[in-house]
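Protein folding task:
====================
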Amino acid sequence: MEGIRNLIRLLQCMSFPGNGRPRMDMVVLKLKQIHEKEMALTTVMGEKICHYRQGGG
């Protein structure tokens, strides 16, 4: 759920006027951070097998 909140905050800042928006490299970095955190919360590593469980929060 936290990942969704972070994504919403990121999308909201994209509606700012051009000079108030974050740079695209910062947006990409933040998206990668959100993705990595969500994957860590929803992926359980077994012996050479990834098991996914629903929900991350």
Remarks:
- The two ends are 5 Å apart (CA to CA).
- The mean pLDDT is 77.
- DSSP finds two helices and two strands in the chain.
